[in-house]
Fold this sequence. Notes:
This protein is an alpha/beta fold. Helices cover 38% and strands 20% of the residues. A seven-stranded mixed beta sheet has the order 6-5-4-7-8-11-10, sandwiched between helices. Strand 7 (161-167), helix 5 and strand 8 (187-198) form a beta-alpha-beta unit. The radius of gyration is 19 Å and the shape is globular.
Amino acid sequence: MNPAAETDRGGATCGACGIPLGARPLARFEVQGVLYEVRPCARCGGGGTFPVPSPGDLGRFYGFRSYRADDGARFNALVEGMVGWARGARRRRIERLAGRRGRLLDVGCGRGLFLRRMRRAGWDVAGVEADAEVARAISEAHGLDVRGGDPDGWDFPDGSFDAVTFHHVLEHVSRPADLIVRARRLLRDGGLLVAAVPNRDSLQAAFGRASWFHLDVPFHLHHFTASGLTGLLERSGFRIVRERHFDLEQNLFGWIQTLLNRCGLPRNLLFDFLKRPSLRDGGSLEGRGRKIAASFALLPLVLPAGAVLTLLEAAGGRGGTVEIAAVKEGA
């Protein structure tokens, strides 16, 4: 399919600025026979995926890439332990910013791992997951209040939350600005919003280009920069209180996998290998034994390099992912 001949389905605009995207692509990816482009935003430096996948296309893609096993685990035991540690660090950051425990909504809560950790720490929690069936399964398995479907059906009272979190969610949704507006309605005055996204203005993105680990097309519909997300939040009635470019979980692995990708190994092969077998893309790594071995053989080189680069990009304010914290201003 030729993207230039594809009609704009109403989403070929920047998710942060709302202006039309440029026509000259930054990268191209073919996924299940469809050619997708990443097109730039001239205002904030972000971008968007074009053509915009239809809801049916996205449902098929997400069905192909299952995100969790029946017991909720996504990776092997070692990686799951590291993920749990990272969620604990995120809890502590939110508590420092919020100043008190209260009621928290996690938008795009996935398997509910973060919600469970916050509940154990004394928070009153609720979650949202796009797929209503997944939301119901999480609620039943863990006794959580998780709601699914369109935001108009969430049915949370306005001003009923002390904190709302979007952890690597906004890049996946068709209209991120609408979700930010909804979050503002659900927050009390002075309530905290925390949003984390991949940063297209990062050193990682500049080095990786089309091989950047966090450039996940077509699942990522929007490609934010820190300035673009900050501008979106400020225009939506929020005051920025912190911009964080250091994330040991996301940015260190992002560098490791990007470096391996640039070495010519199959894209994101190590990441796929670390998943549980039933969740791997294509379900199997058969025939890739030598390339998997090559990935591990290169780890003594790319791991320390990735650690140094993670610190350097954070110090320069150009982390591979960025986390923005903001508070709701009065009307």
